[in-house]
Every structure is written in structure tokens, then in C-alpha cells.
Amino acid sequence: MTDISTGAFERIRTGLPSSPGEARLAQAWRGWQLLRASPAALTGLAIILALLLVALFAPQLAPETPYGQALDRQLVPPSWDHPFGTDEFGRDVLSRVINGARYTLYIVVLVAVIAAPVGLLVGASSGYLGGWIDTLFMRITDIALAFPRLILALAFVTAFGPGLNNAIIAIALTGWPPYVRIARAEALTMRKSDYIAAVELMGASRLRIILVHVVPLCLPSLFVRMTLDMAGVILIAAGLGFLGLGAQPPAAEWGVMLSNGKEYLLSGWWVATFPGLAIFFVCMGFNLLGDGLRDILDPRHEA
Amino acid sequence: MDNGMTQAPLSVAGLGVEFSDFRAVRDVSFDVRHGESFGLVGESGSGKSTILRAIGGLAPISHGTVRFRGEPVRATRSRAFRRAVQMVFQDPYGSLHPRQTVERQLSEPIRILGLDDRMDRIRQAIEQVGLNASFLYRFPHQLSGGQRQRIAIARALLVQPEILLLDEPTSALDVSVQAEVLNLLMDLRETRGLTYLFVSHDLAVVGAMCERILVMRNGEAVELLTGDQMRSGRVSTDYARQLLRASEGYQPGITRREAG
């Protein structure tokens, strides 16, 4: 039994796998080897993993409930009891920052799940099919790109009404055009390639060519762009929260916390500083990971 | 099946291919007989590859007709055509999907045509081209040029075609590997009774591989030769003679005399 598993490990490590599963693992192993070589990307990965774990185990990690008010301990500076201090309602800032990770993850995941597939499908079809479909899709994309993102998100939120979910929809609605551009650029480079011609010759349908052959090649650059975009998404979400158009108080969302904390910046710097630092680190984590992934996933790296 | 024996499985009549304002192929006609290897030869830009692509449906047929088993092909090729006619491309680095394993690429024709016994067919095909099952789960970047071209040939053979369109299948390979792949193609033709339409700029290769050869220049047919004529240099047009002489290698003075 051990022989079989070490054999499999050896095959994965050397890149000579003997089943589809092993082939995927071998790819992952190669990616990990490259990622391991880049300290910056590893730092980014560590931060994102920390965000995931903190969000997942927030109730267990937080010393107190994020919403428990205690008016007898307003604006207590950081101490052993409250490492990040307490806010104007006596709520433990550490607990609120930990719970804020959940909002951030929720926003990031939902925006990615809504915007990326739309951008990917529109861009890949546009680039591969060409003709009037391409023209139509790209003009729509150009129009969407012409609006400054935050302003457009503001307009959407104003139209739909403030709230976290509306903020997410607004960010996603303004987030897809760059993905269209990227997927289209990738699709254009492979449109006339022989490996696409080969499957066309076999009589593959256009849908099959786009989904099975074009889309997987668009994924790496899309994935890199998505990771790099996440920092911007978090900032916009926090910005909307700060302006009172995103998550609403008393939600322990980092932008909302910043907004509340700004009133006490002189008397209680910790109220705004710690959520601000959390935003900073998570954005930096996504940027570092994105840069690292760009080095690894760029298809032009392999001959 | 008798039908295929008596009439040309593939015939081209008055074929013209135009790309916007450029005429890549002009009024080319030929028949490919059952079981023969028919060569198209000419310098780059002579339209020989474009003819292959037009037959396969990858380039537009602007004029004339391409007949498959006597029937003119339609813009969307029939299922019978897809199964009977397959293509091997020039550049083995560009003809395999860079992010699919060999097994995935070989599955594709089977899935598209909805055939059964997928793994059996794949194993059979990969062994036919002189590789083994250990290559199945590798990615193209883990293979050499010759191995890639063998995979591309295996992919073309998977649906058990009658006709292979070979677009300079060895010109991107090292000389030693070229010979291996050419031998493989000759063996396959013999054992499986395939018909080849073989495009090359290399007269030696075409002379060795083909029974009949059409010399092309600037999108037009210049001369139809037999393999014997080509090998012995008995050609009647100036251009074919020039091409033959050029293939013997660089000799100072020839071009100057030719021009004068």
C-alpha cells in the first residue's frame, strides 16, 4: 500500500503521472514549487489563508460578541483585556475586526462569482466568434468601462437603496468589463491556432470549442486579474460602507467601523486604526498573491 | 465501398480561395485516387496549404467545388466527411492544446463524434504511432517535437479516417525525427490503406512519399508529375526545373543565370 502511494507521489513529483487525477496533482505540484520560490507570493497566500481561517472560525476566535454594548467601558484604549480597545458603545474592537473578516470574504467571493463568469463567457465568445457579436459585446463593454467604477457603484446603490447585498451587486455590475477584455484578448490569440482548427475539423460545435477549449486557456490570466482586483473590490466595499451606502451599522464591517471611528480619531485612535489596518493587510495580501500567480499561471511561461 | 474504389474519394475542380482582396488559390483542379499519396509542392505562399484547409473547411471555397465521394461538400461538412477526412498540421507545437493532457486531446474526436470504447481506441491509436500508454497523462510541453507530431497523427487516426490531409507534417522537425515520422506515415498508409494528400515544400520528401505530384506557384497549378518523373528530374516546365534545382541545395551562380 505504501509502495503504491510513494509511487504515485514520485510520478506526481516528476511530472509523469499515470491517471487524469495524478496529472492534475502534478500540475498543482509544479505550481506550488513555483509559488514556494517567491516569498512575496507566499506572504500573500498566508494573509489570504489567515483571512479564510479567521472568517471561518470567527465565533470561536472572537473573545466577545461583536454587538455586545457595554456603556460602562466606552473608548477603552488597547489593553490585555481588549487588545484593540473598545469603541464608543463599549464593543470589543478585536471581536468586531474578526467578525468583519466574514463580511469581507462574503463580498469578495460574491463579486468574483458574479462578475468573473459573465466576463469570461462574454469575452471568450466575443474573441472566438468575432464578427458582429464581437463588435456588439465590445461596444457594450467600452460603454461600461467609460464610467468610473466607484461612481457607477454609487449610482447603482443610490438606485437600489443602501445595503450590503446591493453594494455587492453594484460592485459586480461594474466589475465585469475588465474580465471581458482579458478573456477576449486570450481568445483572439488562439482563435486561428491549429489546435482550435483541429477540433473545428472534427466538427466540434462552437459552444463546445468555447467552453472546452477556449475558456480553460483564458482562466489563468483571468484568475490573476481577479486576485489583483480583489483589493479594489474590498476598498470599494469599504468605501461604500464608509459612506453609509454599503453595510449598515451596527454591522461589524470594516468600512462601517472606519466610518464610526472617524468621529473619535483624536480621542480614540484605535477605533478606526485597527479596521483600517485589517483592510490594508488583506488588500496587500491579494496584491502579493496576484503578482505571484501572474508569474506562475502565465501560459507564456511554458514553451 | 465499391463506390469509393471506382471514383475518386476526393476531387477538386476549379478551386479558388479568396481572403478579402487576396486570391490565395486560383482555378486548381485535381483528383486524389483511392489509396494513393498525392503531393502538392511549391514554395511558401504558393497556396498549397490553403488548398488543404479549404478541403477541410478551415478556409472558404470561393470558386469551384470540392467533391467527397463524388458529392460536392457543403459549408458545414457532413458527419461522414468528418470521420473520413482528418488533418495533420505543420507545427506540432501549435496543433496540440497546451493545457490538455494527451489523453484529453485524444478523447476529443471520440466525444465529438459520439463513439464508444474511448480508452480502447486511445490505447490503440497511441500504440499505432509508436508511443505507449505512459504518455497519456502528459502535457504537450513535456513531449519532444517528434512525440507531439506522433500524438497529432494518433489524434487524426482515432476516428479511422480514409483520407489524411498532411500539411508539411515533418517540416518543423529535426532531420532525424523527420525520417522517423515519414516512415511511420508510410507504414500506416500501407497497413491501414489510407489515402494521403501530402503538402510539402521539400521535393525529396514528396518524391519519396507520393505517386503523383502537383507543382504549384502563386496559387496556380503549374505541372502534374509522377513520382518517377520527379525523382529522375524529367519535368517539362521551367518552374518545376527551377524548383528541382533549388532543392539540390545552394549553388552559386544559378539564380543569376536563371534571371539573365
Automatic annotation (TrEMBL), chain A:
GO terms for cellular component: plasma membrane. Residues 101-290 form the ABC transmembrane type-1 domain. It is found in: Cell membrane. CDD domains: TM_PBP2 (cd06261). One of its GO terms (biological process) is peptide transport. The chain crosses the membrane at residues 40-58, 103-129, 150-175, 195-219, 226-247, 267-290. Its main location: membrane. Keywords: Cell membrane, Membrane, Peptide transport, Protein transport, Transmembrane, Transmembrane helix, Transport. Signal peptide: none annotated. Pfam families: BPD_transp_1 (PF00528), OppC_N (PF12911). It is a multi-pass membrane protein. PANTHER family: D,D-DIPEPTIDE TRANSPORT SYSTEM PERMEASE PROTEIN DDPC-RELATED, OLIGOPEPTIDE TRANSPORT SYSTEM PERMEASE PROTEIN APPC. Belongs to the binding-protein-dependent transport system permease family. This is Cytochrome c550. The lineage of its organism: Bacteria, Pseudomonadati, Pseudomonadota, Alphaproteobacteria, Rhodobacterales. The gene is DppC.
UniProtKB/TrEMBL annotation, chain B:
One of its GO terms (biological process) is transmembrane transport. Belongs to the ABC transporter superfamily. GO terms for molecular function: ATP binding; ATP hydrolysis activity. PANTHER family: D,D-DIPEPTIDE TRANSPORT ATP-BINDING PROTEIN DDPF-RELATED, TRANSPORT ATP-BINDING PROTEIN. Gene3D superfamilies: P-loop containing nucleotide triphosphate hydrolases (3.40.50.300). Pfam families: ABC_tran (PF00005). It comes from Primorskyibacter flagellatus. InterPro entries: AAA+_ATPase, ABC_transp_ATP-bind, ABC_transporter-like_ATP-bd, ABC_transporter-like_CS, P-loop_NTPase. Residues 10-243 form the ABC transporter domain. Keywords: ATP-binding, Nucleotide-binding, Transport. It comes from the Bacteria. The keyword Ligase does not apply. This is Peptide ABC transporter ATP-binding protein. The keyword Cell cycle does not apply. SMART domains: AAA.
